[in-house]
What does this fold into?
Amino acid sequence: MALRFSVLASGSTGNAMYVETGSKRVLIDAGLSGKKMDELFHRIDRDPKKLDAVLVTHEHSDHIKGVGIFARKHRLPIYANEKTWKAMDTSIGQIPLEQKFAFERGEVKSFADLEIESFGVSHDAASPMFFVFRHEGRKLVLATDMGYVSERIKATIEGADMYVFESNHDLNMLRVGRYPWNVKRRILSDLGHVSNEDSALALNDVISDNTSRIYLAHLSLDNNMKDLARLTVEQTLKQEGHRIGESLALYDTDPLTPTPLAVV
It folds into this structure.
């Protein structure tokens, strides 16, 4: 059975991604309301009650807004590292002990035929981490909220078949935009978000002949546009000799509309 996924929602207003194999179904983050999460699952024709795990990347509200209510409603096990559990404790409500599990940075867990590796990122949260998913020789990477893409991260995520990759802001739009300077400084810092330009450069370093799709994710509503993010990444990759639109395709993600289920 194939490895499949859908980016249910992506952006500063809420993030969630669904991954499945023939035997396991996993949700990564639930940054929208419980009601909206149920709607998103309905739109990809999947039953949230059949989820085997909810993985939490970090405690920011756009990643955990619906985690508590969604997990309680459907009686789902939640996996997060110790520091993230402590940081989100007051935000997600009471979680029954039998639904709480540890998944630390740098750890590899096997959920039957789905292997998941976590890796730490540079972001202004307690202990943020994202994931590499492996199934029958296929590799899928989820990497957003990175601040910057370190050589360690590149070594972990290189050569994937598909990427869901941060392309948060356009540098010029951010610099002239309405955000106060302290917020701009935070976004531009090593603990903030990856720009379109830096996303393109990092992707050039990690993609291989195996890579067929890149989903540009976590776009800022105020400081980016889908067309601009896609154009920036496309131009850089073309300059480096990659054939965009032939063996390699770029895809948008959306804060409200899930991507169609894709086979990795």
About this structure: The mean pLDDT is 97. The radius of gyration is 17 Å. The first helix runs from residue 34 to 43.
